[in-house]
Amino acid sequence: MAKLLASIAWDWSLVWTAIGVSVAYNVVKFFYRLHQVRSMVREIPAKYGIPIMPHSYLFGHLISVAKVMMKQPSDVFGGCAPLFIMKAYPELAECGAMYMDMWPISPPMLTVFDPDMMAQFCQEPSLPKAELMHTEFGPFTQLKDLVNLEGQDWKRWRGVFNPGFSAKNLLSLVPTFLEEIEVFTDHLRSLAKSGEIVRFEEPAMDLTIDVIGRAALGARLHAQTKHNGFRDAMNKQVYWLETDRLPRTIVKLLNPLRPVMMWLHNRTMKNYFMPLIEQSMAEHTSQDTGTTSGGPKTIISLATKAYLSDPALRPADAKPTHIDAEFLNVLISQLKIFMFAGHDTTATALAFAYHFLHTNPHTLAALRAEHTAVFGPNPATAAAQIAANPSLLNALPYTLAVIKETLRLFPPVGSVREGQRDLFLTNLTTGARYPTAGWMLFSCSFASQRWDAVWPRAGEFVPERWLAREGDPLHVRKNAFRPFELGPRNCIGQELALLEIKAIMVLTLREMKFESCFGQGAQAVLGDVAYQVQGSGQVTGHPKGGMPMRVRLRTGE
Ligand code: HEM
Ligand SMILES: *[C@@H]1O[C@H](CO)[C@@H](O)[C@H](O)[C@H]1NC(C)=O
Ligand SMILES: *[C@@H]1O[C@H](CO)[C@@H](O)[C@H](O)[C@H]1NC(C)=O
């Protein structure tokens, strides 16, 4: 007995020692990394003569940044911060890029807003995605998805999905989109009847998730009319990711339920996809090789077809008729990323566009005039006309200009890449060189697309710039428009998103009136009460308040 007690006591001392060693190790590691980061930052002015914000050894740039951000509403989206800093430090802005040390809150970051310097790490060359993406998206897709894959794996999968985004295939999907938009317009009519103010991004998300369901899965989710278990699990899974603002992320990480919830949502999503995948496999195996299946190509059908026909996607011993477990994991990851990336950004873009149309009545009038010119005076006939000839959606230059101008002012995401040892960004005018080794490179479309060095009337909503020809002062310069990013890792879904938003606009804006309602005393950012925020569980910039909106029918106008 005494022996046993002694051994327990001995065990405890071992435990305490282990804890002590581990704490000491982590404290040392923390200060070592702190020293490393802060020294690297101080080299920037010392060795390269590049100006940086006032820098504290202990706090890095946290104090300088906090001072700037304190002048903005506390909920403003983090992706917007570089623009406020540029305005506060014009001598830094002039460089076209800005070194920011917010470690340990975020990795040391070189924020770039000069379009030609953005091209030097997103276009030629296109650097790998930043480590931060792996931390954030690992638990969602295990990084086996098109946004996070790299190298040969990425290339192969991009090749598999590209045919789904050809102009021809997208147009063949349009009739399915119209069915979903019809559900949306019905819902808007009932909102018009009740006169209530809604968070417009919510019905917009319901719609865009239904649309991407058609394009990715070839299935109807009915998210607009019913509770959808898959959609619910996906949103909740995204909620648990580390993509949130820091204090909220820490609380989530400490929550002991997190792994359980993530496991459950992961399983729900898989269970939703499984029958769809099996059905798609069955369709492809039952067909004679060589015959193409009728109907539009969906993400799921492209992937199963590639699996059956491309041995490079299968392990050597896998039978083509049997779904290999590893392939299944990759396919599920791909479906998750398409379902997520394919709806969130499109819905928020729609919400901001409708806000701009409300605050710019001349633009709205010109847009309606274009729709009438193409589809005739009766708005009720447009749906049938588009169904019969979807390419009519490509004859709406002013509508496209409105969408592009919206995405210029409110791009929902930027790209983050991993800096490289031998890579310097170069200011093409002065020849100044900016080291990238050890830095996360942030292609900040928000700051770039509102930078007055690049855009005349940068802060104003001017769709006309998108129709301006070369020589016109409003003409848009090369590399400047990058809400979808540019280069090989650009958005594969951009044409789909544009087509979708154009169709929604044609089918709503002449019948209805949309009024964003922020109420008296609402705070403004950069002169607009509608600004980007990042709410709990959101990954991208969302409209403030979900974009409060009142819908009215125009019959009595
Ligand atoms: C207005 C709507 C959209 C915006 C603003 C947008 C923006 C972007 C951006 C900035 C990227 C680059 C991300 C990075 O570098 O990490 C991207 C990539 C991607 N987007 Fe979109 N997107 C939109 C709509 C869509 C839609 C509708 C789909 C699906 C059909 C989609 C699927 C993807 C995928 C799969 C990638 C990764 C492409 C690759 O790396 O090969 N997006 N998007
Ligand atoms: C989530 O599901 C995928 C298969 O769909 C699996 O590979 C992965 O390990 C699961 N992750 C978690 C955290 O349960
Ligand atoms: C390069 O540096 C100059 C001088 O600092 C600055 O005016 C300019 O905006 C920078 N970018 C480019 C592309 O020239």
Automatic annotation (TrEMBL):
The chain crosses the membrane at residues 12-32. The keyword Transferase does not apply. InterPro entries: Cyt_P450, Cyt_P450_E_grp-IV, Cyt_P450_sf, Cytochrome_P450_monoxygenase. Pfam families: p450. Its cofactor is heme. It comes from the Eukaryota. GO terms for molecular function: heme binding; iron ion binding; monooxygenase activity; oxidoreductase activity, acting on paired donors, with incorporation or reduction of molecular oxygen. Pathway: Secondary metabolite biosynthesis. The keyword Flavoprotein does not apply. Keywords: Heme, Iron, Membrane, Metal-binding, Monooxygenase, Oxidoreductase, Transmembrane, Transmembrane helix. Heme binds at C491. Belongs to the cytochrome P450 family. PANTHER family: CYTOCHROME P450, P450, PUTATIVE (EUROFUNG)-RELATED. This is Cytochrome P450. It comes from Podospora appendiculata.
